[in-house]
Request: fold
Amino acid sequence: MTVAGRSASELYQRYLNLSPVAGVEPITVERGRGAELWDVDGRRYLDCFAGISVVSTGHSHPRVVEAAREQMERFIHCGSLLYEVPVVGELAARLAQVSPGALQKTFFSNSGAEAVEGAMRLARAFTGRTEFIALETGFHGRTNATLAVTGNRKRKQHGGPYLGGVAFAPAPHLTRCRVCGGACTLRCADAVEDVINYHTSGNVAAFIAEPVLGEAGIVVPHPDYFRRVKEILDRHGILLIVDEVQTGFGRTGRMFGIEHFGVEPDIMAMAKGIASGFPLGGFIARPEIADAFQPGEHLSTFGGNPVSCAAAVATLDVIEDERLCENSARLGQWLLAKLETVAARQPAIAEVRGKGLMVGIELADRGGATTAAQQAVQMRAACRERGLIIGIGGFFGNVLRIQPPLVITEEQLGSAVATLDEALTATA
Reply:
């Protein structure tokens, strides 16, 4: 009980603006550790959504907690672009070490949307151009500029007009590509050239994409997709912005998702798993691109908060020391194999796909009174009742999202698969 004897549920309903969400899960969280959460009644849940793919090192990892505590005892805030803060510089140096290619200079923000919007502004500043190309069904945030490059009209309700000068290229679906007519043949990548020639004025600053499309339903592109697109972009002098907000920091089995595709981005946005739950984002670029801003052109009061940066340094230490990228890759392959076995006997599953511990289970729309999107909602509830937390995504809301903390064990994942199987039977 809280605040004069009133429950958290009562306070939420009366004082929080919940209109942007379909509904809050009926779990009053009391504590968490590793891949597990406990509610105020002591019930344990296996968390396979990690706060929307955020707590990669698990809930309240002791090393992250200790690093944040030590920094809070020194000071909490001073303005990291007003004064030199050791831990902020340390984190920037560490990010330069682990980021692909020549990416070296980071600007820190508070969230993924801020990071993406800052990356877009930097691309404009460096190129002197104003337009962008993004992917259909892609998602980049809920600010005005990030919604402009989000290819999902459901996320744009009651908004607009948005940032102008944005064109969209086809989404690259490995097994059901609309442009390629089924299995991807990279015609969708070649279509980017047509978008440049026929849907822009030729004044394109950057192409922006997620290495694995998260909100779209964990859509994994063809292994050669980004290589083909980068060749096109280079011919036209267009930058590649990679949105690693959801795919970064071990989520896909590599430190960053783009590493699976063999290309180097010009600018990379990041957030979510960067600090194990402390609010932090950023975008990193090659030095000559990063230096394109003029004084006063971009700033953030809370960006690079010392406590969040201390948590992020500890997060990188844990990812390295506990080999969480390797754990994500190994368990991701194991999980996909197990789910394929389930899919073979569960007609409700249309497809299982993913990279590392970023896995989507697409439900088939088989007609009748219950749509796949409705079954996805029922599945989330059925799993919750059985002590398992999952997410829902996909352009049509019919994809179950499995994105647990990277510290999850094979035994815990096995339990999750068994619960999913049972819930699929129950909701069929």
